[in-house]
Input
Amino acid sequence: MLFHVKAPLRIESLTGTWLSHQLTFGFNPATRTWFSLAGVSLETPPGTYTLELTGQPASKSSDNSADKTVTFSRKFTVARGRYPKIKVELRVEGKFTAPSGEQLQQIDEAKKVKQEYLNRVTPEREWADKFETPAVAAISDVFGSQRIFNDKISSPHLGLDFRVPAGTPVAAMNRGTVLLARFLYYEGNFVVIDHGQGLLTLYLHLSEFKVKEGEHVNRGQEIGLSGGTGRATGPHLHVAVRWQGTYLDPNQLLHLSLP
Output
């Protein structure tokens, strides 16, 4: 979701709290409104939640009261998400459903990498304008669907799968910095782009990297080639969106009209 705020007075900066997440707002001079991306996890119960806002008024040298912060809030209703109740039965190598002791160690090492990197929140926003699709292709599986691997129920699908053959160029969805570009057990060749303020896009199962960690990329820049590495039933592109530790529906982000 994208929060738009029209402040009741002239302010220099705006921050907020939403579902225990910290928000930093940018200013759009064209509409004279403040904006910030945010999200709601699959686990959030339906209900009414409050967006708390804190603004720093524009300073006035002759008025000390203008230096005091102002607070205001707005309540929003979160409805229950509706996702396809389609059970996708998939077959993968046994090492992904019944890993050996050595493979469990690899899984544990990959888990530590993800814990270290995927919860990072960099203060500056790098993304700009609309997010674009990483590949021009049909979507073969959607966010929230139920998955069954080798007759074992897995967690809901937390991304979008694009039906592309191996070797298809994969593009960055927006401007950012490459946070990860390495092989992990389940993800295979894995690229993560940090777009700032806790917003990450994740690209899984690649056959080849075209970027390195720490590299700055632009929207539409080639970051890798699609493949079937890691826990994949065949060549495809899995894309996920993570915001301050929460997985969001990439399709919603792709359809947002952004400043």
